[in-house]
Design goal:
Elements (H helix, E strand, L loop, with lengths): L1 E5 L6 H12 L3 E3 H10 L3 H11 L6 H12 L8 E4 L5 H13 L6 E6 L2 H9 L1 E4 L6 E3 L18 E2 L6 H15 L1 H7 L4 E5 L4 H13 L1
Parallel strand pairs: 1-3, 1-4, 2-3, 4-8
Antiparallel strand pairs: 5-6, 5-7
Helix pairs in contact: 1-9, 2-3, 2-4, 3-4, 4-5, 6-7
Length: 215
């Protein structure tokens, strides 16, 4: 299957993508991984992307599209893939359609993880990270430490990252609404959109998505 996963920040796309890709035996292709791989391997696209990133500029669509195309042409993606973070706007969605059409392929579904904006803010703004070990992550509501502000595992101080502040989260949501949300209507008009309620336990959301794909 060839699937695109969309949804606002905090909807759980990364977590669901990993589970769905494993269940469907297809590679999980995320924009973040594409950039990291191309930059670490010093590819031409990676060098071009890094130049924009080092200057604090957005990476142009053509570079992101090029990276995605190269990755989707790898042998492990021959029988399908799950795209996470790409396409991020209608121009990229149109480019993806052209790529697939040129290869005699098409998307099977676009999964939209739906979650209320206030819930997104609550999920992200409530995160607390250990200063001694960033892999130790807590949440003031969903996974509170035994002692407020103290890591259960190593006793390190827990803090809120600047990226997780409510103001930053709401700004990220605004960017999502402006740039990415229009692809939902784009795919809906093609009859590809499948909306999944992204509230509940991780396995429950995965089951909803798998059940929807079977239909």
């Amino acid at each position: 299957m060839r699937i695109v996963l969309v949804g606002p920040p905090g909807a759980g796309k990364g977590t669901q993508a990993a589970f769905l890709a494993k269940n469907l035996s297809i590679p999980h292709i995320s924009t973040g991984d594409l950039f990291r791989a191309n930059i670490s391997q010093n590819t031409e696209l990676g060098r071009r992307a890094k130049a924009f990133m080092d200057a604090g500029d957005l990476v142009p669509d053509e570079i992101t599209i090029g990276m995605a195309k190269d990755r989707m042409e790898q042998p492990d993606a021959a029988n399908g893939f799950l795209l996470d973070g790409f396409p991020r706007n209608v121009s990229q969605a149109e480019a993806l359609d052209e790529m697939l059409k040129g290869a005699g392929m098409k998307l099977d579904a676009v999964l939209d993880l739906e979650v209320e904006e206030d819930e997104v803010v609550k999920r992200i703004a409530g995160r607390r990270i250990c200063r001694l070990d960033s892999s130790h992550v807590f949440h003031v509501t969903y996974a509170a430490p035994k002692v407020e502000g103290v890591c259960d595992t190593c006793g390190g101080e827990l803090y809120q990252r600047d990226d997780d502040s409510e103001a930053t989260v709401r700004n990220r949501l605004e960017v999502y609404h402006t740039q990415t949300e229009p692809i939902i209507d784009y795919y809906k008009s093609q009859g590809l959109l499948v909306t999944i309620a992204a509230l509940g336990e991780v396995h429950e959301i995965t089951k909803r998505a798998m059940d929807a794909l079977k239909k």
